[in-house]
Amino acid sequence: KRLPPSPLKLPIIGNIYLAGSLPHRSFHSLSKRYGEVMLLQFGSKPVVVASSAKAAREIMLNQDLIFASRPRFSTADRLLYGGRDIAFAAYGDHWRKGRSMCVLHLVSNKRVQSFRPIRDEETSLMTEKIKRFSPGVVNLSKVFMDLTNDVVCRAVLGRKYGGGDDREKPFNQILKMIVEMLQRYNVGDFVPWLGWINRVNGVEAQVEKIFKMTDQFMEGLLREYREKKSSDDAVVNFADALLQLQRESKDSDPVEDDVIKALILDMFGGGTDTTFTALEWTMAELIRNPRTMKLLQKEVREVARNKNGIDINEDDLDKMPYLKAVSKESLRLHPPLPLAVPRELTQDTNLLGYDIPRGALVLVNCWAISRDPLLWENPNEFRPERFFNTSIDYKGLHFEMIPFGAGRRGCPGIGFAMSLYELALSRLVNEFDFGMPNGGREEDLDMTEAPGFAVHKKSPLLVVATPRASL
Ligand code: HEM
């Protein structure tokens, strides 16, 4: 067999030690030596890392069907009701049914449109909140986290849970704990005979405790939704829609409670951290690049000027080509999930001349691809203008940049995420001028990445936001 090139393995753990705290960067460096397709070994699990657009196209388009499953991770399995969600579910009927429910009731164009009043209100609240900080320092990372959380909460649950300024409510804590737990390497997933370690070091007990808290919360939630309607009566929320579906399907193929709970958790996991991260990196790049910020403000403010004081709304966004270019450039440089979500290969195959065994875990390094100097001129520079003369975008058809993945398992939430992202960004740059706190220099803004599944800024984005004089 002709296997892909591999770095040296250590006994038992294999190449786990090479992942480091920012695996997308470590794998990128390794790919320079071992090539666009390399084979690592995590314990007993073969791991294929693809680092070129060509390899990604092969995995996510040409051979999408056999690369469309997800590996099982014991923590995700337990916390997400035994794989009853969709993001971590194996490819098959359950996944197909779950995904179509999510598309139909949350992220289709029609549903995304129906959430327009929510985005409108929440982005207005966001700018109001920022004004209250002025002329002091505002933590934009926190502002974006609250914004995405509140919008997802209202679309999924019909109201804010732990919303407003009361962030320490149980649901937020539970979500935080789930995300933190999912991010940890679980040694038993890679070296099965070392699985006992998790029983001894308390990880298993911790997962169990989080699961119990989550389930208790979700049980209460479903009970409450069955008893009364939610508060956002004008908009049908995801939880109500799923419960309605359950009532309608009770005599044929009933939707289990556990599926509803898992899908709700998935939508929070998929929708909040990612969108907030995208906004955070975009604003950081804009503040670091004042010339680009000025060009964007000029475009947005010109559109706003013609509206006689009425707020920018979503119909105005199509008149903002520079805003579209900024969003593409930011997602190119900072894909929030740099290694996408792991895939699993369901049959032996050949990938760009290499034999890959069935069962391999497959990582596509989206971060490395969209910084490939063979595809992008000066790839590490933030230069939105590069998108003026190209049709390349982020929707999964151009493998030069795939921040949302592609193919059957590609992100279904693009419309949901980007409609909020663009409205929030345009309103922000329209209404405020931004500077660094304590007279700091823009070019010194810290762009260090924090480890995690979604990679955000290590230090929060602190800025001084001054309301524009005429507003
Ligand atoms: C900027 C925001 C977002 C980014 C960058 C992003 C990125 C991604 C990526 C890279 C994947 C894996 C794709 C693959 O395997 O090919 C994914 C999957 C997924 N995303 Fe997103 N996402 C975002 C927003 C959202 C939102 C708003 C939702 C829902 C409300 C969502 C729900 C999901 C789900 C459910 C999956 C799993 C799909 C499956 O396995 O079939 N995402 N996302």
Characteristic terms for this protein:
Cytochrome P450, binds protoporphyrin IX containing FE, alpha+beta, 471 residues, three-stranded antiparallel sheet
Lay out the secondary structure.
Blueprint lengths: L22 H12 L2 E6 L2 E6 L2 H10 L11 H6 L13 H15 L1 H6 L1 H18 L3 E3 H18 L12 H13 L4 H4 L5 H5 L2 H25 L10 H11 L8 H32 L1 H16 L15 H13 L9 E2 L4 E3 L2 E3 L4 E4 L1 H4 L44 H18 E4 L26 E6 L4
Parallel strand pairs: 2-7
Antiparallel strand pairs: 1-2, 3-9, 4-7, 5-6, 8-9
Secondary-structure content class: alpha+beta
Q: Which oligomeric state applies? A: single chain
Q: What is the number of helices?
A: 17
Helix content: 40-55%
Gyration radius, rounded: 22 Å
Shape, principal axes of CA atoms: globular
Tell me, rounded to a whole number, the average pLDDT.
93
Uncertain segments: none
**Got a strand count?**
9
Give the termini separation.
Answer: 68 Å
Largest sheet: 4 strands, mixed
Order of adjacent strands in the largest pleated sheet: 1-2-7-4
Note down, in words, how this protein is organized.
The mean pLDDT is 93. A hairpin with a 2-residue loop joins strand 5 (349-351) and strand 6 (354-356). The strands form 3 sheets. This protein has a 4-stranded mixed beta sheet with strand order 1-2-7-4. Strands 3-9-8 form a 3-stranded antiparallel beta sheet. It has helices at 23-34, 53-62, 74-79, 93-107, 109-114, 116-133, 140-157, 170-182, 187-190, 196-200, 203-227, 238-248, 257-288, 290-305, 321-333, 366-369, 414-431; strands at residues 37-42, 45-50, 137-139, 343-344, 349-351, 354-356, 361-364, 432-435, 462-467. Helices cover 48% and strands 8% of the residues. It contains 17 helices and 9 strands. The radius of gyration is 22 Å and the shape is globular. By secondary structure, the chain is an alpha+beta fold. Residues 60, 86-87, 99, 102, 106-107, 266-267, 270-271, 274-275, 278, 336-337, 340-341, 403-406, 409-413, 416-417 line the site of protoporphyrin IX containing FE. Its cofactor is heme. Its main location: membrane.
